[in-house]
TrEMBL record:
Entry EC number(s): 2.7.1.35
Keyword check for Transferase: yes
Catalytic activity: pyridoxal + ATP = pyridoxal 5'-phosphate + ADP + H(+)
GO molecular function: pyridoxal kinase activity
InterPro entries per the UniProt record, alphabetical: HMP/HMP-P_kinase_dom (IPR004399), PM/HMP-P_kinase-1 (IPR013749), Ribokinase-like (IPR029056)
Name used for this protein in its record: pyridoxal kinase
Pfam families associated with the record: Phos_pyr_kin
Domain Pyridoxamine kinase/Phosphomethylpyrimidine kinase: 14-261
Top-tier EC class: transferase
Length: 270
């Protein structure tokens, strides 16, 4: 029997199943890896209030206990972070990465829930920038997050995405993917990958209707799965782009507010 590769997500719960820990574990399974998890936040969405998001962080000591359980078997082959919820939880994640000499670290710097447009916790965003980016093999901000991390504000072009990637790389991340997705104008879904030397622009046709709830979490989890399976960073990012495109294309309308990606789309449509 081949060696089982281990993956970890430190992230929040999305009861609708498209994003968060649910998305990560489903994606890890699609990549043939064994997924561990440490729950950081519970997010609910209120259908009686325009799908408003309520975010409830888990106590940081409990997050630390979960990670102690996970790392009792040694470092995993790759890991990711998602919604962390508080500065204390960011510090717990930092300590776990450092104390276990964890390699292949994907940081998805979640600052907002989809449909929201304000940073959930500005102090946590600063902590992610200062404590986790220097530990990141790959960081995967969307346009909003890249604008915050880089200090450039709203990004509206590929050149601005490249400049943001340069600045974020300067904060310590080894590789940066700025996700334009459907948010950038035009008929192409564009992401920019920067390895510290060269830029690669990843493009696909935009998919309509865009059932893309959970696309960001799924993209980062797919990179994590790729790294665990021995792909180079560039290979893992390119495959993750294809994986997420297939997941969006296979998604469905959950209710009047949201349509999640379907994580089995890549496998089922090959």
């Amino acid at each position: 029997m081949p060696k089982i590769m281990k993956t970890l997500t430190i992230a929040g719960s999305d009861s609708s199943g498209g994003a968060g820990i649910q998305a990560d574990l489903k994606t890890f399974e699609e990549y043939g890896t064994y997924g561990f998890s440490a729950l950081t936040t519970i997010v609910t969405m209120d259908p009686d209030n325009g799908w408003h998001h309520n975010v409830y962080p888990v106590d940081s000591a409990l997050v630390a206990e979960q990670l102690k359980t996970v790392f009792a078997g040694g470092p995993v082959d790759a890991m990711k972070t998602g919604m962390l919820g508080s500065v204390d939880i960011v510090r717990v994640a930092e300590q776990a990465i450092k104390s276990n000499q964890q390699k292949n670290v994907v940081i998805d710097p979640v600052m907002v829930c989809k449909g929201e447009d304000e940073v959930l916790n500005p102090e946590s965003a600063d902590a992610i920038r200062d404590l986790l980016l220097p530990l990141a093999t790959v960081v995967t901000p969307n346009l909003f997050e890249a604008g915050v991390l880089s200090g450039l504000g709203k990004l509206t072009s590929i050149e601005e995405m490249k400049e943001a990637a340069r600045k974020i790389h300067g904060l310590g991340a080894q590789n940066v993917v700025v996700k334009g997705g459907k948010a950038l104008g035009g008929d192409r879904a564009i992401d920019v990958f920067f390895d510290g030397k060269d830029f690669t622009v990843l493009e696909t046709d935009k998919i309509e209707p865009a059932y893309n709830h959970g696309a960001g979490c799924t993209f980062a989890a797919a990179i994590t799965g790729g790294l665990a399976n021995g792909l180079s960073v560039a290979e893992a990012v390119a495959k993750a782009k294809d994986f997420v495109s297939a997941a969006i294309r296979s998604g469905y309308q959950f209710n009047e507010y949201v349509g999640p990606v379907f994580h089995g789309g890549y496998r089922l449509n090959r």
